[in-house]
Amino acid sequence: MKEQHNRRRNAYKAANGHFDFVLLIVVLFLVAFGLLMIYSASSYKAGLDYGDPAYFLKKQLLSTLIGFGALIVTVRIPYRLWKELDLWIGLVGILVIPLVKIPGLGVTANGATRWIDLNIVTVQPAEITKLCMIIYLAAVIAKLGKNIRTRKGLMIALIPPTIAAILIYAITKNLSSAVIVMGIAVAMLFVALPNYKVFVVSGIAVIAVVVGVVLYAVSGSDVESFRLLRVQAWLHPEDFSTDKAFQTLQSLYAIGSGGIWGKGLGQSMQKMGFLPEAQNDMIFSILCEELGLFGAITVIFLFAILIWSCMVIANNTEDMFGALLVVGVMAHFAIQVILNIGVVTNTIPNTGITLPFISYGGSSIVFLLIEIGLVLNVSRGMREQ
């Protein structure tokens, strides 16, 4: 009997260790592949603008090393400590956003003020907010327990991420990050609440609003709103080929020219000044051009493994706070991957959103790796249990 118990315990530990190993290996591969693609996509532009083809690669490599350092620290700190700091963390996630408006601190790039300059590094507050809201929501939902089903409980959980999303959109004009923050909140509440009717009704209402906006945008009325013009450019990109839909069309050309196997790594033509922000939001199209449909499906498959690993860890964690942390991280990755690929393929209107681990972005890679550190920390705690 004791021997059978030991076998089960060893099998349980081995299974959990396996999923930790898979998650870590997938992340390491995505990060390494992302560095390779950033160099490939940016070398032409970096050589022209900065005289160094590896300019963007070097900056991303530095941020990646900082990110892995933060990941190691995050894994070492018991994740339950963050539960006691939930209110402060939620407050930080909200108050950090207006910092971009402080003269000398806020940084403007490509017409958008979305970063703060800390001398050593430049940080995007929206990335901090996403992490803070995951921790806040996990702690609050775990503390409320069954009270989360009450109206007051829902308000306590929803008000901070809603305020954060509104501030992100109003101050930084970053609609995609605002959508991600609310998407994370909805996903975590969906897991915590047994009554799905609220989500079904809310989903129908959101779809109705989106359909209404699209119909208004194509109604023929004088549309001057930047967002509504984006909708028109999404539906009829050929009519906006020189401005609003230029980036989208160049992205589609890159994807189409890649075929099944691609032109070969480093052989993209669209990155030669044709596709704006090739190393940022549109790096997936360069990936498709150089590595073809095969490369695109491989990367999507790796993201699917990452999300699946998170789901397995969440399902096998007895601690509610830990499980919700993993759910929040899983929702963040899933939403951001779907939005980025949707934009690049013109499935949804164009809005600036990076592809996790693959796109260029210092603060993005640092906070993504911190989130992976949280997941690995929860998994380690699950083994100890």
Account of the protein in words:
With 385 residues, the chain is mainly α. The chain has twelve helices and three strands, in the order αααβββααααααααα. Helix content is 69%, strand content 3%. β2 and β3 form a beta hairpin. α1 (2-50) runs antiparallel to α2 and α2 (55-76) packs parallel to α12 (362-384). Mean pLDDT is 84; it is low at 11-19.
What is the fold's blueprint, element by element?
Layout (H helix, E strand, L loop, with lengths): L1 H49 L4 H22 L9 H10 L10 E4 L2 E6 L4 E2 L1 H20 L6 H22 L2 H18 L4 H21 L8 H10 L10 H13 L24 H33 L4 H25 L17 H23 L1
Antiparallel strand pairs: 1-2, 2-3
Helix pairs in contact: 1-2, 1-10, 1-12, 2-12, 3-4, 3-5, 4-5, 4-6, 4-11, 5-6, 6-11, 7-8, 9-10, 10-11, 11-12
The biggest beta sheet is recorded as: 3 strands, antiparallel
Average residue pLDDT = 84
Q: Helix content range of the residues, please?
A: 55-70%
Strand order of the largest sheet: 1-2-3
Number of helical stretches of at least 4 residues: 12
Q: Could you spell the SSE succession in H and E letters?
A: HHHEEEHHHHHHHHH
Secondary structural class: mainly alpha
Range of strand content: under 5%
Name the overall outline. Answer: globular
Distance between the termini: 21 Å
Tally of domains: 1
Quaternary state reads: single chain
Radius of gyration: 22 Å
Would you report the number of β strands? 3
Low-confidence stretches: 11-19
